[in-house]
Amino acid sequence: MSAPPKPKRKMPDEYDVLTIKLAAKLKKEVGSEIAALLLVGSVGQGNYVKGDSDCDFYIVIKKDRDKQVEILQKIGMVKAEFENDPQYSSILDLMVFFEEDLNEQNINASSIVNWVHIWTGQQGVLKIGKDNPFSKLKVTEEKLKLGATQMCLDNVFIMRDGFLNTPAANTDELAFYGSEAAIACAQALLVFIGEKGFNRYSVPELFKEKSPVKASPKVVIDARDFRLGAKIDNVTDFVEKCYDFGWAILEYMLKNTK
Question: Burial level of 78, CB count in 10 A (0-12/13-18/19+)?
Fold first, then answer.
């Protein structure tokens, strides 16, 4: 009698491998100081687009102000190690939060932590820790709108600073700042109007269908396609459109936030 066939094993992709290796390295270097490591975003939700999606992580540091600089430096060294590895350098995205800042008063007063971060953290997959520190907070639709507005504002200013500090001859970097911010602002608008089930790849079509803002969806379509490897013929024209696109969304949010 022949043996039953062995079940096929799922081959881990670079996102699986990065998650396993990063969690192991952080446990070794700063494990006792970390309240939680969460895999968030499209990879955490399993609806990512291989070759385009980032592998997003949230790290929450335990309450100990005296050690925070030392812990941040250690995390920075771990992050740099993975960023210097060509296999992971283009997909790793990591944000650090302090456990003591994850309360309603600090979130409402902070431009660093906003309610979109909290909602995103609540959907995350726990990789280090026993409890999700984001789950203790109640997120309402109004809070999400405030967070989405802050997210859009942050990305408009990141785009502006990117254009300010990048030489005009460095067209790829200029296009990068424009495309990243345009996609992020479109994502922020979708959250603002109550849409949540999307990833970066599906944003342009959803924006075209749902957006109440008079801004051309072609901008975010071009931004998405650039992130997937397409060329931009006229970078100056493209980044100007990205800038106007971000501001149009921000102005709509500010007018429609209580």
Answer: middle
Please, which pLDDT band fits residue 11 given cuts at 50, 70 and 90?
very low
Query: CATH number of 141-255: 2.60.40, 1.20.120, 3.90.660, 3.30.70?
Result: 1.20.120
Tokens 């990789």 correspond to 127
pLDDT confidence bin for 1, thresholds 50/70/90:
low
Quote the tokens at residue 213.
């803002």
Arithmetic mean of pLDDT, 120-125 = 94
CB atoms near residue 205 (< 10 Å)? 14
This prediction has a pTM of 0.84
Banded model confidence at residue 73, pLDDT cuts 50, 70, 90: very high
Contact yes or no for 108/117 (Cβ under 8 A)? no
Region 62-77: what's the mean pLDDT? Answer: 86
Domain ranges of the chain: 14-136, 141-255
The pair of three-digit structure tokens given for residue 224, joined into one six-digit string: 């998405």
Q: Identify the residue with better confidence: 80 or 14.
A: 80
